[in-house]
Amino acid sequence: MKQDIILAGVGGQGILTIAFMLDSAAMARGYRIKQAEVHGMAQRGGAVYSHLRFADHEILSDLIPAGQADMILAVEPLEVQRYLPYLNRNGVVVSSVHPFKNIPDYPEEKSVLDALLELPRAVLVDARQIATANKMPRAENMAMLGAALPFLPFELADFDPFIRAQFERKGEAVVQSNMAVLAQGFRMGMAVKERLDAGMPADAAFREPHANL
Amino acid sequence: MVKRELLLGDEAIALAALDAGISGAYSYPGTPATEIFEYVQSRAAEFAVRASWSANEKVAYEGALGMSYCGKRALVSMKHVGLNVAADPFVNSGVTGVGGGLVLCVADDPGMHSSQDEQDSRYLAHFALIPCMEPRNQQEAYDMTREAFDLSERFSTPVMVRLVTRLAHSRSDVVTSARSAQNALKLPDDVSGFILLPSNARVQYDKLVKKYPLLEEYAAASRYNQLSLSGDRRVGILCNAMAYNYLREAFGGDIPHPFVKVGMYPMPKAMIRQLVEAVDEVVVVEEGYPFLEEALRGITGAGKPVHGMLDGRLPRTGELTPAVVARAFGIEVDSPYAPTLSALPGRPPALCPGCPHADSFRAVKLATGDAPRVPIFSDIGCYTLSFYPPYNAVDSCVDMGASISMAIGAAHAGLHPVMCSIGDSTFGHSGMTGLLTAAYEKLPMTVFILDNGTVAMTGTQDTLLTGDALVKAVIGLGVEPEHVRVLSPLPKNLEENARIIREELEYKGLSVIIPKRICVQYKR
Fold this sequence. Notes:
The structure holds 2 protein chains of 2 kinds.
Chain A: E1 2-10, H1 15-28, E2 32-37, E3 47-55, E4 69-74, H2 77-83, E5 87-96, H3 109-117, E6 122-125, H4 127-133, H5 140-148, H6 160-167, H7 172-197, H8 202-207
Parallel strand pairs in A: 1-4, 4-5, 5-6
Antiparallel strand pairs in A: 1-3, 2-3
Helix pairs in contact in A: 4-5, 5-7, 6-7
Chain B: E1 3-8, H1 9-19, E2 22-27, H2 34-42, H3 44-47, E3 50-51, H4 57-69, E4 73-79, H5 80-85, H6 87-96, E5 102-108, H7 122-127, E6 132-133, H8 138-155, E7 159-164, H9 165-168, E8 170-176, H10 198-220, E9 226-228, E10 235-240, H11 241-250, E11 259-262, E12 264-265, H12 269-278, E13 281-285, H13 291-297, E14 306-307, H14 322-328, H15 356-368, E15 376-377, H16 402-413, E16 419-423, H17 424-441, E17 445-450, H18 467-476, E18 484-487, H19 494-506, E19 510-515
Parallel strand pairs in B: 2-3, 2-4, 4-5, 5-7, 6-7, 10-11, 10-13, 13-14, 15-16, 16-17, 17-19, 18-19
Antiparallel strand pairs in B: 1-8, 6-12, 9-11
Helix pairs in contact in B: 1-2, 1-8, 4-6, 11-14, 15-19, 16-17
């Protein structure tokens, strides 16, 4: 068993927080882990990514080799594009559809979305809507983590202790809201996963939930 | 107690040093090394260790050397260019030798993720005749650092542990081992070794030169240097630590050729000779500069064809990746997806919304107008990001403290007005000596010290010189108090700030303008 995941987003979106939660969950399940991340300059609003690898055997490289990622998990839709050369043939893209525009030449939103819809296996989630509906506007990262979970060897409940550890000092309400955001993201991913498990071909399974995008 | 912990490469170094019984840790913030010291600091009370930031890397190194002089163990950590600043004590500590174990962890930044160059610290270790250990994963970072302290005391030498960004900032599970007690205070039996008067220094240097073969013997027997002669002998591979990982990844598990992997220096020459004898040609793969490759090629060659960075088999610049290594051996990289969007804009880092530096540079622009352009010699910190649009504000960024000193040269060259900008922490690091020089010469310059009360770029570490203390220091260095102007860089003060800046630009002497507002990232 091995899982290679590229986490992508913009500095300040909480990429390293979900990386740390996935690390912790993998560690709790006894997997070996490598997780390379970006510190320093890029965290000032630049493109931020993390290479997260876990496996039931020794992992050699801290970087995921090109063409071998099983998943790109993105909190920002444009950022997916940068890492597509890492994705393997059957790799899944799980991305937020909500753009983070802090550059003057951000492409037209529709073209960014259309480019994602061209991919054969993309789970697109309105993380902004989920986060704001739960009054946690900065929790888009948690919604995306939730959406990715059905495709990873974890249970939703695995993350309760890590969410608690991360948000406990902000009070029980914040802990509960983050859990709700995670669960709602999870249901978005599950909608696709259930179609696949029911034997629907990937094309249809991934596309149908996006008919309204 | 043996435990399995999830640690960054940086944290593995720090925890190993704590477990090895250090009494002090010394550093100045710098990516990718910052988290080494931060981890020690986070557990300093629990381990009864002294840990507070130093003003710069030279001070940090000398602090560690002083701790070692007193018989106790010390860790000093810095980024690669920080070692340039600390090069003087580093090189000379090889000559003095040490008391308690002294380990320098230096983090190189191939690919320049957060640096102005990608210099390879192995050359500095070699230059100073100091042993260097190079971990290939977080576990080795821990194990080597533990060993480095013992090695340091056994041979009375500082030991360098060299990290690169990918290891410094990558997490993995690490098995730790039992803690050692701290050393007792013990002064040197003979202080002459630490008094590098020429008469003593000649004795010490002779000792160092004679010590080196013993270090070579130690390294030759190290488990971190590995020779394998199995596999296809048409090609042999000489690699260093991180390159070894990428090679195994590229070959899908094991390296199918004879190879030498170097994890400890002085480099294992006998092993490398054995490899060269056994194969038809050698490919050198290393993260960093062509250090092993140049040694292997020498002037007259290895007697066999050698491939590497110097003949273009591997790229000379940038970071190694599994794909780069695979391509060097003609292994096809199956990468089925390319970007599906036709034009992909970059997303460089930027000043944060509400950043005080942005307001400072807006005031400067307003004060100087659009043309003719007045250059701003600048420095290393978040404010360097004002190079990018919409600010396009700064005109140089070379090394810590260079802003003021380069402005001195520009004033000498006849440029007027001369402006330079530097942050509060960078000023404390290396700016004060430049300002002292400018004040002594009474040069017509306008120096901006951007006081945001923290070391912002590396993650808001403590700054040693801010607020009133900064103003006092500036005056103490000889700047006329009436030309030390403290501003509040806020949008509502834009006009007023621009007016003050204009006033000081018109003054034909030395002015220091201090825009003072706390960093928006600062949380305490």
